[in-house]
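User: Okay, second chain of the day. Same drill as before: sequence in, structure tokens out.
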Amino acid sequence: MPQYQPHQRFTETDRDKIAGRLRDAFADGRLDQPEFNHRLDQLYSVQTYGELEPLVRDLPPVRTYQTPEVVKDTKPTPEPGTFPERKKENQPQHRGGAIGGFTGVVLINVVIWFVVGLASGGHWPHFWPVWLLIPWAIIALGGLGRRR
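Assistant: Same drill. Structure tokens below.
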């Protein structure tokens, strides 16, 4: 932040910031209405940093952003190019997720085929669950080559 000299002129942005500080002080009850009006009138008649300083000398410093406590307790970020170690117990297990769900569907269909065959007195219908077994076998065999 540059250090300003008392004889230097300030910008309209600086004037707006000081007006904001005066409004905050008035809203907080630090300034009464006549004092606020007097300082605001002076603010719009002065031109240098040295003339601004007396307007806010007795006011508390500007409130700035404060890091929330939750964030302060976190671990620092790793150095660039390094990767943090992951805990294995926190990683979800994906063992046979697709195979396991599809296996249940295939087994239900095989049981239905079997019950239909028994109910028809041993006249077994065409083994239609084969159409589900083919994709199940492809999924099961495709998962064998994956790394765990």
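The chain has a mean pLDDT of 80.

User: Thanks, on to the next one.
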